[in-house]
Write a structure and sequence with these properties.
By secondary structure, this protein is α+β, with helices and mostly antiparallel strands. It has four domains: about 30 residues; about 60 residues; about 70 residues; about 120 residues, no CATH class. The protein is built from ten helices and eight strands. Strands 5-4-3-2-1-8-6-7 form an eight-stranded mixed sheet, with helices on one face. A hairpin with a 3-residue loop joins strand 1 and strand 2. Helix 6 runs antiparallel to helix 10 and helix 7 runs antiparallel to helix 9. The radius of gyration is 39 Å and the shape is elongated. The chain starts with a helix and ends with a helix.
Length: about 325
């Protein structure tokens, strides 16, 4: 009797756990994932996105402003992810040209002048002779400095040429190697793909069967995209081209589109200058359960299932 009571209680608890698990799975699959976003372009670019799941139990936020990307993930109000990342400037940094005079020209006034005390050693010598000697020595020092600068510049240019030649040679060799490798890799890939069971299966299919598979794939993509549609969105802004006639034609075309999409588009034309400033706002939701249902329905088709099986086998 005791054993029966124990078995009944055990079965009861197993059923309770099973029901709780089914309830959690149901909530995970059929609770909609809500999202809203905003993207603005004026003088600067700004973006913002907010995603809520399970009524805000799981929440993800991200924003981009002034080259700074911020993102955060919260579960039950606790921060799991909180990052602030500065984006690198994508403009290429070009190396500055070598200032030859700055690098190689010595300071004549400080280091290379000959002190006057060394020249006026002989008391018998006249001041005019001493002055001429001093001028001659200065001229010679200047000539030597100029020759030194010329030699240095020649060395730098020759070293640059050598490095360029080496780089060119290495790049040429790498290109040749890559060219030799490419056909081999391509051949190997082609051989593998042709020998795979998936390729042989597709090859043996008739035209009508291939058409049927493509129709199923098209229908699946259509269903998924129809579910991922935005609930509400609006586009504001102003635009203008160099030619005012182009601005007028574009505005006419946009007004036609605006009538089709229930006046969600509000772009004002500017006939005076070229510009493009806009703001996009959107709200939507995704039901994961419906997406899973569409995927399972698509995968359980006989032909699609065999294709998946062969693909997994490799």
């Amino acid at each position: 009797m005791k054993i029966l009571i124990f078995l009944f209680t055990l079965i009861k608890y197993i059923l309770i756990i099973f029901l709780v698990l089914i309830l959690i799975l149901f909530l995970l699959l059929f609770t909609p994932l809500k999202y809203r976003f905003k993207h603005k372009k004026n003088l600067t670019t700004e973006s913002y996105a907010d995603v809520k799941y399970l009524g805000g139990i799981v929440r993800y936020k991200c924003s981009y402003k002034d080259n700074i990307f911020i993102q955060s993930l919260k579960i039950f109000g606790y921060n799991i992810l909180d990052r602030k990342k500065k984006q690198k400037n994508l403009e290429p940094e070009f190396s500055k040209p070598i200032d030859k005079t700055q690098n190689f020209e010595p300071d004549i006034s400080k280091d290379n002048t000959i002190p006057e005390k060394q020249i006026f050693k002989n008391d018998n010598s006249s001041p005019t002779d001493d002055e001429t000697k001093l001028n001659e020595l200065r001229k010679k020092s200047e000539e030597l400095e100029k020759e030194y600068i010329k030699l240095k510049t020649k060395e730098v240019s020759s070293s640059k040429k050598e490095t360029k030649h080496k780089k060119f040679k290495t790049s040429e060799l790498n290109q040749n190697k890559a060219m030799l490798k490419k056909p081999k890799i391509k051949k190997e890939k082609e051989e593998k793909s042709q020998s795979s069971p998936l390729f042989t299966y597709i090859k043996n299919l008739s035209f009508d069967e291939k058409k049927e598979i493509l129709a199923l794939l098209k229908n699946y993509i259509k269903k998924v995209f129809s579910h991922l549609k935005l609930k509400d969105y609006k586009i504001y802004g102003e635009f203008g081209f160099d030619d005012p006639s182009k601005t007028g034609i574009t505005f006419g075309m946009l007004s036609v589109v605006n009538g089709i999409i229930d006046e969600k588009l509000k772009l004002n034309p500017d006939f005076n200058e070229k510009k493009l400033n806009y703001e996009i706002r959107g709200v939507g939701k995704i039901n994961l359960g419906i997406l899973v249902f569409y995927t399972v329905q698509f995968a359980l088709n006989k032909k699609i299932f065999t294709l998946i099986k062969l693909y997994l086998k490799g």
